[in-house]
Each structure stands twice: as C-alpha cells, then as structure tokens.
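## Example record

The block below lists the input lines for one assembly entry, exactly as stored, with component labels intact.
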Amino acid sequence: MESDSQDKSLNNRKVPLEMSPEEFRKVGHQLVDRIAEMFTSFPQRPVTSGESSKIIRQALGNNKLPKTGTSTDRIFEEATNLLFDHSLFNGHPRFWGYITSSASPIGVLGDLLASAVNPNVGASALSPMATEIEAQTIRWISELIGYPETGGGLLVSGGNMANLVGFLAGRTAKVNWNIREEGMNAANQKLRVYVSKATHTWIEKAADLFGLGTKAICWIETDINEQMDIEALKQQILSDQADGYLPIMVVGAAGTVSTGAIDPLPEIASICRQHDLWFHVDGAYGAPAAALPEASAQLRGLSEADSVALDPHKWLYSPLEAGCVLVKNPQTLLDTFSFHPEYYSFDGSKEDPSLNYYEFGFQNSRGFRALKVWLGLRQAGRDGYIKMIRDDIALSKALYHLVEAQPEIEALTQNLSITTFRYVPVDLSNDDSEAGKYINDLNQEILNKLQAGGELYISNAIIDDKYALRACIVNFRTTLSDIQALPEIVIRTGRSLDAEMRPNHLSN
Amino acid sequence: MESDSQDKSLNNRKVPLEMSPEEFRKVGHQLVDRIAEMFTSFPQRPVTSGESSKIIRQALGNNKLPKTGTSTDRIFEEATNLLFDHSLFNGHPRFWGYITSSASPIGVLGDLLASAVNPNVGASALSPMATEIEAQTIRWISELIGYPETGGGLLVSGGNMANLVGFLAGRTAKVNWNIREEGMNAANQKLRVYVSKATHTWIEKAADLFGLGTKAICWIETDINEQMDIEALKQQILSDQADGYLPIMVVGAAGTVSTGAIDPLPEIASICRQHDLWFHVDGAYGAPAAALPEASAQLRGLSEADSVALDPHKWLYSPLEAGCVLVKNPQTLLDTFSFHPEYYSFDGSKEDPSLNYYEFGFQNSRGFRALKVWLGLRQAGRDGYIKMIRDDIALSKALYHLVEAQPEIEALTQNLSITTFRYVPVDLSNDDSEAGKYINDLNQEILNKLQAGGELYISNAIIDDKYALRACIVNFRTTLSDIQALPEIVIRTGRSLDAEMRPNHLSN
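Predicted structure tokens for the full assembly:
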C-alpha cells in the first residue's frame, strides 16, 4: 500500500517550482510590461538611489530561508519593487561610470529565450543550434573588428576571463616544457610578461593565480598619452633575455581602463614576431571601435594579435555577462584547456567532428550568452554598430570641449569615448603642491557626492598623480543634452564642497 | 552648419538597438507565449533533434555579419524557430544525461528581470540591492545544506569555477611563502593535493592552470562503492611528507560525477585537521541532498569543509549558469583574489564598509545570476526543495529496481539520483573477456543510438572497466511513467544493435 501511494505521488508529482502555462504567461506579461515601464522611466529617475548598504539590507529584510513557498505573482511584485527602487541603472542616459553599457532591449529578451531553452553550450550534442550560433557570433565579431575570421574563440563571463584565457593560451604556447603536467617549477626558469603601466588589474590576477607571481610582470613605462614606451619594451626584453629570464608575452591595450589609450599595436606585433612572444590585446573596452572606417592604424593592429579580449557587454551593448576572447589559432585553446574525461560522449564522428566549447576554456557547463550578442548584431547590423560607437565617441569629444571651455574645470584627456577632467577652484593654481593635494582630495569628495547623488554617474582615474573625474560613454541612450548638463553639476558640486572643505585643508 | 547638424543628430540619436515600449511589450509578450507553449510541448517532442552539426549549420545558414539591421519581430520569429526545432531540451521529462537539471520557469523569468535591471554585481555601489540579494542567497544555500551561515561565498558560472575558486583559496591558505608575488617556483617545494580516482576532471584543470602541474595530484584509490579509501589517503600523506612534499589539500566528493558516490567526509575532515590541510568538498551535484532530514552522516560532513562547490543549475533547478562556492571564512577569498586598483572607488565608509564581490573571485564585472536562485528558493521554500530532491532520488531508486528486474539489463549502481546499468544479451556471460569487450562496445553503440534518437537522453560511466549507461535524475518534470518507459527502450535498442553487431564482433 505504501508503495502504491508512492507510485501515485511519483506519477503525479506535486512540483513546487512548476508554473502552469497560464501562470507563466500572466506573470511573464506583467514582468515584460514593468520592464518596458522601467526603460521609459529612466530620464525621470536618479541613476542610483545612492543608499547605504545598511538601508538596502533593511529594505530587503534579514530573513531566514523560507520554510514554505510564496506565490509567483507576489514574489515578482516584491522583487521588481526592491530592484526598481534600490538599484543603479547602467541603462540610464546619464550613466557614464567605469565601463558598463546600456543593455540593449533585444539582448534582455535574448536572455529570456536563452534561459528558457537552457542549452548547455559546453558540448554540441547538448546544444546543437546554440553551439552554431555561438560560432557564428565569434565569426561576426571577428569580421566586425577586422580580426581573421579563420580564427576562433569563445564567449566568457567578461573581460577578466577573456584576458585570462588569452594569457593562459600564451603561457602554454611559449613555455618550453610540459607545463600542464610538470607545473611552473619543473624548469628553473622565471617567466616574464610585458604590459604597460596602464594595464588593468586582470594582469596581476593572471600572474598570481597561474603561478608566475606578480613579480613576473614587467611594467613598461607609458608616455604622456598613456601609451606603452616601445623603446623601453625592447630594452627590457633584451636585458631580461641576457639575465636568463624567459619572456613569453606582451600585452597591448586597445583602450586602457583609465583614459582609453591605445598602445602602438603594430609595433608591439613586430617585436613579438622578432622575439617569438605571444601577442595578447586587451580590447575589452576599445576593440569594437576598430569597426569604424576612421579607426587608427594603431588600433587596427589588433588584427595581428594571437589573442584579443573584447567585451560585448561593454561596447556591443549586451546585457551582462558577455565577454569574448578571439584567437588566431583555435588549436592553441585546445592545447591549453582540453581534457577528455571518460564520462563524456561528445566527440561526434570523424566525418563530422563536434565543436565542444568545454574544450576551449575554463567552464564545462556553459550558458547561452551568445544569443543576446547575436540578436544585437542582427538587429543593428554592422552599419548600426558603427553609428552607435561613432556617436558615443562624438559625445565624449563634445564633453571634452564643454569642460575645456569652463574656467573651473581642467580638461585632461580624451580617447575613444573616455573624457577625463577635474574641478579646480579658480583661485587655486596647481603649481603649489599643497594646493595640488587639496585639489585631489576635493575631486575625490566631488566624485563621492556625485556617485551618491544620482544626477549623473561618473568614476575616476589617476593621471600624473592628479585625481581625475572620468566619463566613459558606452551608452546609446545618452544624448548631447545629457552631456551638456555635466559642467553645471560638477561646478555646483565643486563650489559647494570647496566652501565646506577649504577652511580645514589649506592654511593659505 | 556641420556642427549644428551634428548637434541635432546627437540630441536625437537614431539608435538601431533601441526598441519602443510598444515594440518591447509586443515582442516580449509573443516570446513569453511561445516559451509557455514550448514548456507544455515537451512530452510531445523528442528530447533532441539528434541532427548532425552539418544539418544544423545548414539550417542556421553560413551568413556573413549583416551590413544592415532586421526587425525585432522577424529576428525572434527566426530565432525561436531555429532553437525550438534544433535543440536538446534539458527541461524534457526524459532528459537524464550528465547533470543538467530542468530549469525552473521562475528562474527563466528571473533571468529576464536580472538582464533588464542589468546590475554589475562586482561592486555594491553598482548593484546595491542585487549585491544584498546575492549575499542572502549565499546564506540561504548554506542554511539549506547545513553549512555554517557565518561563512561566505559567491555565485559563479558553474561547477568548474566553483571548484577552482575553492582550490585557489586552499592553495593561498596553505602555501608557506608569498605565492601571489613570488609564484610557484619561488620555493623549491612540490605541492600535493589528494583526490579520489572518481574526481571530476576540474581537478586536472586546476592543477594545470594554477601552476602545480597535474603530477601534483595524488589519485587515491576508491573502494567498491567508489568512495575514497581513507587508509590509502593517510598513508599517502605520510609518505609524501617523509619525501619532502608539501601536502596542501584534500578534495572530498559529495556525489561523484559517474555514480553519485559520497566520500566519507567526516573522516576526511579529521585527517585535514590533523595535518593542517585545506578541506574542499566538490558537491557541485550532490550537496543539496544534505538538506534532506534523512541525509547520511557522510554527506552531512560537508559542514566541516573549508570550501564547498554546489551548482544551483544542477540540483536547485536554476537555469544555466549558476554555480556557487561556499567558504567557512570569507577572508580566505579576499586573501586569494582581492586587488585594489586605483581606478575603483567602491570601498564605502568605515561605518558601513561595502561588500564588493569583485574582490572574492575571478570576475570584475558580474551579472545578477543570484536572482534566479533566490526566486526559486522563495517559490518552493525549504520544504519544496526537500520534496523535489527526495522525489528525484525515489525515481532513481525505482529505476534501479526496474532494470534489476530485467534479465537483459545488469543493474550496476544507485546513489543519490544516479542509476547505472548496462544491456547484456541473455546468452552472453561476462566471465568471458572477449564477451566483456563486446558488451562494452555494444553499450557504447546503444548510448550513441539513444542519444541521437530523442526518446530519452542518458549518458555513460565507466565502472570497473564496464561501459555503463547512466541516468541522473535532477528533473522535476520526470514522473514514474517516464522511468518505467526506459527498460523497454533500452532492451529494444540493445536487441536490434546486438543483431547487427554480433556477427562482426564475436567468433562464437
């Protein structure tokens, strides 16, 4: 009898996570409507509520794991309220902080579809169409930026992972012993990787986590434009070789994180060829700008790289997460990452071998992040992306000219779509080092106030020891009038804080 | 004049990626409806279309990057047709391959909401509410499986990354020099990590990528139940210490990938304490079963681990991607991963320090994968999860009894929700080694045929040199009648292939 009743309950499982088609449609439609409302409400909202973590935690409530369930319509009512009232919106026209773009609405719907089909894009057998769409996306991105379409690559979570994949491919390719089995300390040889001083912190993570240690990083000086000093690079490689080190790779930047500078990529490529070094380009932010007909030869030099990192969730306007690494020779990824466990049955036939992305990177199970990128490329096409990127750059240049025209704002740099500047009280000259320190403190406070205030959102950079304010426009919702609002906001905030802070900071 | 017209175009940007609210609602509602249809259509569909990659590529078309855009309704019409007609569906009631679960519908809608709000959950300032929801999700998962809620952790892309994070935390904690700066070959000491022979291939990736080399892995024998041999572990540690190696960590399995075996976790914990080793548990699949009141003491021993990997996209039924790593002491993750670049302004105040997930793992920019997990935990509650997991286990046990009752099927193992078995023609005894090899070949062909056929989807395991068929039920849509259909399908396929293959394979 007990077995009979168990049979019955296993045949008519009560599933607390299931939703009827009617419920799914109803809740789904409501959610779509609320999201459409949210998108249109951006101009009327602050960029961020700017609340302290304590306030946020109070709003969420410090609840224990619920013992029993809650209805889906009530959960979504609560979740949308919590998120719409207490978030920072990258999609806001006045969000220009760090480097996260406005997410394309089609990408948002793409994430819904990807999640519903739920293919595991680790193996072609588990995701037949999704795997081919990812492969097509990789070819299209290559085509867009002028990278060889005969290469390969894969989508990853973001810039860190894309750069780490490229780094590891270089490590495996250029080390002259069986590092996969023997590890780093099999040979008594110290590796060296060369990066400019403006390189993003992923390089430290890579050197640390992959066993080289951060001392293996040679930080090459940059010139006044934040570009790698090529003569210094050449000298450092020669002197390291003479000292018995093993140089393995140079990293070039296609858009540094602070100012958007582009290293002289063709010259770096030539040095890498000469010394048999891996050439990796960190184009997480800037690589899509190579799509522009007017792109510089320095940027186009990324086509010569062995590997390129590029984030679709930055300048291709995909929702998070979408990073991408491209490689000239896909075999280098297989050589770095492929294992063939006995419990997988994915190889396909000899005539029709399978493309299994689990062999090309860190992950085994992989979601379908390619879909949102592919949908965006189809919706806008090459011409559409060129237009959006070009407009972002034009807005950044317009911002530079606007702040340059203000006596109280010092314009500092403009590259790609990044503009940096700082507030300087009219009566203070930076020749005075005490004033210099005060101006840095003042700008840091201006940033804090602006970030919490929600009128606009920018971030910071350090440029020649100057604490700079930084706007990075990877935002198709930003218009010229948004940009034009910035000087007044910065000056108002700067004056008010200067009046507060100066009496306590400066003796004169 | 040119500048005036540029001003105008930058004030009224034509944005090829934008959608009007009406268009977003219309396309969004259609998509929700089609997804609801897809969910209900599973029982009438094959699990997979089983087509070759060549056919899939033809269906997709080998198009170049489009120069101009396409309308969103047409793109979604094409995308849904391509995906619904040429996918494998993990959400199908008869999908029992590898370890991917049916995705909860609420999780699917959660991915829509997460993508729309698009918070960057790398820093609290960029994702105030999302960061707190992730922290709450981590606490709830800990609570669910009996792991100390005073710990911490974060969500990652899946099991590989969760295990890699735990591994690195252990490496940093137990190495007795400054490995982050100096790298692996600063000290002339060879590290050792201990895992059972049944450990998933992530351990080879970890040892390889993080500079130890795969030779640093000590593969400890397993007993007849695929559990780590504790005496062998003890002996190996002692002999390695005597030989001058530096043992740093033991990995215990809470559900091996092949058979779902659980290592004697309390005994491993005790050995780790005794030798000051890091104790990592790979519970990517099995850890949620610790929520059951009837869970074994061996499984509950995961509460003693320094780090635990657990995939919500496995047995918490979240859509891909959702992995999770829990750690007893969150400081160990900061010690392993934190860098503080000068271009970030995220630290918060002294009174209210910020929780910034970029400091706890590989990624800087991070999506809001916590939302789908959190929504599922709210919808089902603890009781709901216990019921779903318990039913999956009951179905797996029912399958074992069903295949055991068949003269032509040899039942092999049953643990957690994994059942293994193989087809054996009634007239062939496995005592004969030639027959043994043939039975392996036959079962491999049975698997190929079943995987392409779409009636059900299982995978394989190798058990004592036997090629086994393997069903892993992490699927709330599976019912007893789905399970009851398996023996007939396996026997029919086995008989037909045996008739084809035997004449060419066996002399007698």
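The first strand of chain B starts at residue 152 and ends at 156. The mean pLDDT of chain B is 95.
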